[in-house]
Design brief:
- This protein is of the alpha+beta class.
- The protein is 38% helix and 23% strand.
- It has five helices and four strands; from the N terminus they run E-H-E-E-H-H-E-H-H.
- It has a four-stranded mixed sheet with strand order 1-2-3-4.
- A hairpin with a 4-residue loop joins strand 2 and strand 3.
- The relative contact order is 0.21.
Length: 104
């Protein structure tokens, strides 16, 4: 297993303002070889919220589309995100498995 450091936005700000089931956050992954990744993460439930907000605010052609994040997860917790990143690194480099824009 490849080792990495994980910075989670929701741990650095007021943790009471986050809904771990229905929210989004930025994360930073640093690998031991020096590669760094900035990843925009949404929960599955937040996709519904983002679409609803688009309709309500008449954005994205009134909710016809949503520009997705880099990664969807079940919940915004260290355990969930760490397990997810570990599994993705088993598949390959994050800039290939996710998309090139995550490479910082």
């Amino acid at each position: 297993m490849m080792e990495f450091e994980l910075w989670l936005e929701f741990e650095e700000v007021d943790s009471t303002s986050w809904d771990k089931q229905n929210d989004f956050a930025n994360i930073h992954v640093t690998l031991v070889d020096g590669r760094e990744y900035g990843i925009n993460v949404w929960t599955f439930k937040y996709l519904e919220t983002a679409r609803s907000n688009s309709v309500k605010n008449n954005e994205n052609l009134n909710g016809l589309y949503i520009i997705p994040p880099d990664l969807f997860v079940q919940e915004l917790t260290r355990e969930c995100i760490k397990a997810t990143i570990s599994d993705l690194l088993k598949i390959g480099d994050l800039e290939i498995v996710l998309n090139p824009s995550v490479l910082a």
